[in-house]
Amino acid sequence: MKLVSWNVNGIRAGVKKGFVEKVNDMGADVICLQETKAQDDQVIEALVELEGYHVLPYSAVKKGYSGTAILTRKKPISITYGMGIPEHDDQGRLIIAEYEDFYLGTTYVPNSGNGLVRLDYRITWDTALLKHLKKLEEKKPVIICGDFNVCHREIDIARPKANYNKSAGYMQVEIDGMDNYTNAGFKDSFREFHPDEVKYSWWSLRGGARSKNVGWRLDYFLVSESIMNRVKQADIWTQIEGSDHCPVILELK
Fold it and tell me: Is 147 a catalytic residue?
């Protein structure tokens, strides 16, 4: 089973850049999207030419903002939107699909923002999401993927010293939030397979950052320890363009 996660930075813009063709080439069973920037009906309309997938969007109340979606060949047993917490659930940031052997979630974790204006809110989000995932894990293993908006370690960011405790995405409290996931038994699948590899999943659109590979690893597949033995491969598809993020993938046996 091949799973893909991709922050598309606008699904309608992505479709104009060949998103449907890229999905067809991926051969994925499930594709989890973040930052669709569209209402549910607009996501469905944008993907009208995509065949073979159930399209399950979750848009923010605010139009053109945030939003997630799951594209899945096999219809899930159940699908839930959000955490059941109103302050978090009006932004379309979390979908959980239940399959026979596990839960699969896609999340777009809040960015702490310019001037770190949303840092406190982001910490609240991290705490609530981890609690929600651990509750699900009591029933089945959990795979949660998406744009977590944090570089976990120095190896995950091109310029660690310039950004540490100064930039959203590399504040110590955000790093602590990722530590909380891994300490709670969620494995960073990419690092399990590639402990020392320098690979990024996001590049600024400014200054030719992508061509210079001045990047950040913000996108993850976190996997319950109990199902990690089924993971065959985890990687970052840096060659695929069409967004400021590239896809990350997970293959299960």
Answer: yes
